[in-house]
């Protein structure tokens, strides 16, 4: 179980005051360590780890912002690292021009569909959805019915993210929170009646996934009547003190998880609220970043950030810093992905020069070339490229006319498109320049 920090006596507070502003203490504080790390550090300034901790605590109180929800007070300190990361996000993720410069306009829909899928899959897998990325993506692309609870969680998450994108500029409300939760959890809860309904009991304990200890006891359910309206105000309005929008979105994420208003599905819902708040504040590039995929890879650190906050006098700095660092990793992953796609596009451009072939059809040909057993329906092409039914059908039928694909009639209405018998010959001829 995580060890709670020591509490200073009056004399220890006085001793800490004398040490707090030294350069060595400031250097240690830059990474904002919790007591579990501080207790093993040695310094020239402090005679023991407790004095070091009390000195750090005093230093952190000098630049403090407090936010209140119901009877609970939370606070955070703006560190140099936080300022640096926020500036980085403002320059690279905020504003409409950023996305236009980074993302090729003809590929935006394709990138967006793929990233939303990745976010839905990773966020659901964090909550126990047992399926592979490949299987989950195939289900979403082909618009197939979920085969199990895990796939249903992913489909729900995917639909909810798309719903939030459509309504991102509208105000957050307690009733809409219920709507989002219902969308996120339908057909995945032990009791289907819990979908979209606030809990009416306190039989909720958040357990530490490794130790099995109780990690968090949420506020009592009668407090929801005060806590959730406070969250609604925090989301929709500016307070007396300015809080950077990215930090504010992270606090929204934390508070929904802390309040834990639902029997299950709080984590997925909290991450979707962060996504909503970021889009609402103009950080549109967040749509192309799979932050939950990074969180999934560092799930223990994510959980510890919650614990550090609650165990250290509701100090949100731990959770804010974790999420800012995670966002930067997600953005770096996006840039790497886009570089790889740019290289792929240069190869696709060879195919795209075929008379009568557009960029989507070139991508379909590339998929078939790399995976000869691939097959498509009109609905799948709609989802994969975020185009209309008419456009998807026209693309596929055009490739049939050019002999790259063959059409199979599945029933009176549905058709599937597969590699044609002439495909290899046509590709060889195209790539050889003849």
Description:
This protein has 434 residues and is mostly helical. A three-stranded antiparallel β-sheet has the order 5-7-6. Strands 1-2 form a two-stranded antiparallel ribbon. The longest helix is centred in the last third of the chain and has 36 residues, at 317-352. It has helices at residues 10-19, 23-29, 35-38, 49-60, 80-92, 96-102, 108-126, 133-142, 149-166, 174-185, 224-236, 245-259, 266-280, 291-297, 299-311, 317-352, 359-370, 378-385, 389-401, 423-432, and strands spanning 64-69, 72-77, 206-207, 214-216, 375-376, 405-409, 415-419.
Provide a compact summary of the structure.
This protein is mainly alpha-helical and 434 residues long.
Q: Which helices and strands appear, and what pairs or packs with what?
A:
Layout: H1 10-19, H2 23-29, H3 35-38, H4 49-60, E1 64-69, E2 72-77, H5 80-92, H6 96-102, H7 108-126, H8 133-142, H9 149-166, H10 174-185, E3 206-207, E4 214-216, H11 224-236, H12 245-259, H13 266-280, H14 291-297, H15 299-311, H16 317-352, H17 359-370, E5 375-376, H18 378-385, H19 389-401, E6 405-409, E7 415-419, H20 423-432
